[in-house]
Amino acid sequence: MDALVEVTGLTKRYGDTLAVDGVDLTVLPGEVYGFLGPNGAGKTTTLRILTGLIAPTSGEVRVLGGMPGQSGVLGRTGSMIESPAFYPYLSGLDNLRLLAEYAAVPRRKIDEVLDLVDLTDRARDRFSTYSLGMKQRLGVAAALLKDPELVILDEPTNGLDPAGMRDMRRLIRELGSGGRTVLLSSHLLGEVQQICDRVGIIAAGRMVAEHNVEDLRAEQELVVRATPRDRAQSVLAGFGAVHRYDDTLRVQVDPRRAAEVNRVLVEAGIEVSELRSTERALEDVFFELTTEEKADVG
């Protein structure tokens, strides 16, 4: 399957600041791809490069088989980078009319995208009267005007209340199920876990992992509550990687070895009060990977 987005060794410098450091990224047709990382990790810079807003310092970037910013690529791409900007004194409808005229898009598409983002009833209200969630949805509507193959959204739920976040997640899921390819950035683990098929994790400008969401979560662990915990951690390290989580230890080991793990701990004089298997949460994976990256950088 040919990738819609192919990034190899992408680097971007601003003076002495290295914002993006050798990023490799691949987005496949028909998927919702989550670009996940903390604020300041390099997500927006990467997306600005993919949409042709800024040029990379080095690396290879292909979007829809062409170079970012080329007219043929832009015509097949819809994007919302950072906060959507519209004329505040115009209605949502009139703002979209201006964009449609500029992009030579048929007027009928305006009604379609307004309905898709659930703004038909407020379309004639001034943009300045919109809530933050409505402004974000109008930004998505603008991105969809050209009926793009690829939709790029930068932190689409940023600043939204819980109801707005729910509506935006629903909209993104509908876009993905409708045959479009969606690339979205986020610093919210729960958001990515709910709506994305694959995820790339970036920290300090470096891509530290790129996997299917389910594959990242699929590894099972044993959760152990034992005293003294430091000694228990030392013993458990003989079975696999061990991470502290609240007042428990999590060891990456086949749960079928639970009886063996318990026996070894008890024989070492360690009191075991809890021992159970669990599936890893994306949150655990994220913090493990980003913590390791920070340690490498330091």
UniProtKB/TrEMBL annotation:
Residues 5-229 form the ABC transporter domain. It comes from the Bacteria. Keywords: ATP-binding, Nucleotide-binding, Transport. InterPro entries: AAA+_ATPase, ABC_transporter-like_ATP-bd, ABC_transporter-like_CS, P-loop_NTPase. The keyword Flavoprotein does not apply. Pfam families: ABC_tran. GO terms for molecular function: ATP binding; ATP hydrolysis activity. Belongs to the ABC transporter superfamily. PANTHER family: ABC TRANSPORTER, ATP-BINDING PROTEIN. This is ABC transporter ATP-binding protein. It comes from Kribbella turkmenica.
